[in-house]
Amino acid sequence: MSHDLHESLRDNVRILGDSLGRTIADDLGPGFVDRIETIRSFAKRGRQGEEGSQRALIEYLRKLPDRDLLPVTRAFNQFLNLANIAEQHYRARFRRVEDYKPGSQPVLSELLERARGEGHSPRKLVETLSGMRVELVLTAHPTEVIRRTLIQKYDAIDDCLTAIESSGDYPERGARAQGRLEELISQAWHTDEIRHERPTPVDEAKWGFAVIENSLWQAVPDFHRDLDNLLLETAGERLPLDAAPIRFASWMGGDRDGNPNVTAKVTREVLLLGRWMAADLYLRDLEQLKAELSMWKANSALKAEVGDVAEPYRELIKRLLARVEATRDWAKAELDGGSYKGGPIIETRDQLYAPLLACYRSLCDVGLDTIANGVLLDTLRRVAVFGVTLTKLDLRQEASRHAQVMEELTHGLGLGHYRDWDEAQRQEFLLTELASRRPLIPRRWECSAESREVIDTFRVIASEHREALGTYIISMAGEPSDVLAVALLMKEVGGTVTLPIAPLFETLDDLDHAGEVIDHLLALPGYRALAGDSQEVMIGYSDSAKDAGQLAAAWAQYRAQETLVAVCDRHGVDLTLFHGRGGTVGRGGGPAHAAILSQPPGSVNGSLRVTEQGEMIRFKFGQPEIALRSMEIYACAVLEASLLPPPAPRPEWREEMDRLAEVAHGAYVGVVREDPDFVPYFRSVTPEGALGRLPLGSRPTKRRQDGGVETLRAIPWIFAWTQIRLMLPAWLGSGEAFSQRLEDEGGLEVLREMRDQWPFFGTYLDMLEMLLAKADVGIAAYYEHRLVDEPALKALGERLRTRFGRLHEALLEVLDQQELLEKTPLIRQAIEVRNPYIDPLHGLQAELLQRNRDADGAISADLSRALMVTMAGIAAGLRNTG
């Protein structure tokens, strides 16, 4: 591929940019557009190294009158969003584009051929794909900065680009599409890009359901159809009808960890919304099937089912339609707080699946396979993946909240203080109660509001069908009693519904002890009787990186997974690892294929759960073509990791990683935890203080409203450093580790050997390289110049930039490159194209932060909005918010 951006991508960026320019000129006059062009020109010349241009840019921005600050920030923000649309469109059109490293993005057909070459039989390929359980868990973590109303306009703009490109022989179609494009860009320009109120958890869930309706509803059957055809070609077999290698779960409306806005009532409402939405979508499918399945030939089973009628398929579909319509009416009545008085509803997946399967089998039996494998098969595939709830809803709560319930119970019943008991006493109590037949919780128990909310959540679980719910996740889990407490509450309040319980290990210490906790847990007969032969464990990426630094955390995550695989193997238990990854490198993000293949051998054994967060949901699943490619990448990676796992690391590599992680951890902690100037520097130089005003999600930005960095959530922690382009959490400590090793004799050779032969280490270096390419210490230095007064803080900033420079040199030496992203020119050029539009936003943000501080937070509404727009624009430009 050419080192230049592909011609069609460049053309689309120009088309969208020109249209935005005309829109702004119509609104604010041609003179204002000239001002924007002047700013962009200064930024571009500055990036090209022209002396004085960066200083001229800053001076120009500082002289802008207050009335111009908001429209200027909006113009650059809108352009960056339009550039993202053009890039998404390009990736959707050219699905085989290497968006990461040449040769690294998988193609399923090639992988199946490779697996055959490695001795795997066609039957084994079909079995592995059929039995695969990849669950993508959509989470509402507050990193999606773009409003839903704008996302809808952007999707429509994408459609216009498709229409323009395909209008070659029909110029009038192209003209119509161009007119519609101008209208949509004008609509976007005249729409407030910042929400005025935080979304509620229910709003977030609706956003998640909208992704299913607008994209995944189409992409899922397309993915299965492609897979089906591929297996027919490669293995001579079809994918079984009920196979669903990739499924979807959700945390939206179920994740109550540190979010007081997610209540039992909210969870119940979101579950009902899922039922309503699913019924509404299936009604559209069934109406189409009723229109199309007009055949009269049917097998005896179908005739026996519907009686002697002229159009047996229509008759069965008509009956199913009535039940699905009743289901929608029931869900609506429940949501509205009324009472439902209609007919029987669909309660389970099988009630929807069985009649459709009867139609399918009948069509095949009478020789109408072509019809059976058309629209009807697509609907069957949707039912297999989405069920009657669209997603399975996970529930997540902090371990301390369950301990509080136990404390209030034991104290109230005169049994002592649960909080004062050691781990052995807690386990003994919980296991005894799990085995007891009498209830533990008194019928009229007086407890705190917090404990009542926990109990009410388990009541919601008791009232639901098992297939509506996913996993119960315990955050900040550290001991077996954390899991047993949830098991006991589920038994006491959850009725007959028992969900898998996944402890989430997220600090460095918790990751180091994860194996022994699970070992102890699985050795308890009382727990094993409940859990059976499967265990889910969640690995936290965000908090471990914030706690220990990226390098030490990545190695701890790897070691924890290795230990967990060995422990579960020894107990004869199937382990499913749930990866709590974010969008950024600092939170475990990065290309899915590389990330999965860099896991320890045996940790991906046909099953995997992984979070898809915030804006990454839109980037990966927001359009059918992109979603199709994302699902293929996941299927490829899990298939490859299961059938052709990477080699285990050599003992000397493990020792090397132990040393590197130890040095990196010490360096990271020495700054973040032990330098008294660090927290004041962080608060002074980043927009962290203003971030709370950006109404991104329903969750507070802090776990507690007092205290230092440790109280800050991982997302705003990363977001704040990203905004000033220092990206500190993802690299701090690595420079010391690598530089020290490169000074040793033979150090370089070992690091290069690990880079080439160990996917874990190679992927880590790739992530670091991409991150350093997006970072810019010059911009970080400008924020410091504008916002930091104290000499001690300035000195710390200087030291941090020196550390960055040291890492930059060391990384290039290990990679044997002259510059970053040498081997991924597309990514490098995408960053370079955006920089002249992001740089002015940085200058404006620093200026606005200073004005805000000078005014003690009381700047005008327009300037406050301009500050929030700079945050949104920088996030859009870097495509990694938190």
Short description:
Homotetramer. This protein has 882 residues and is mainly alpha-helical.
Structure description:
The radius of gyration is 28 Å and the shape is globular. Helix 9 packs across helix 25 and helix 10 packs antiparallel against helix 12 (312-335). An eight-stranded parallel barrel has the order 1-2-3-4-5-6-7-8, surrounded by seven helices. Helix 18 links the parallel strand 4 (469-475) and strand 5 (501-505). The chain has 882 residues and is mainly alpha-helical. The protein has 36 helices and eight strands. Residues 96-103 and 583-589 have low confidence and may be disordered. Keywords: Carbon dioxide fixation, Lyase, Magnesium. Its EC number is 4.1.1.31. Forms oxaloacetate, a four-carbon dicarboxylic acid source for the tricarboxylic acid cycle. One of its GO terms (molecular function) is phosphoenolpyruvate carboxylase activity.
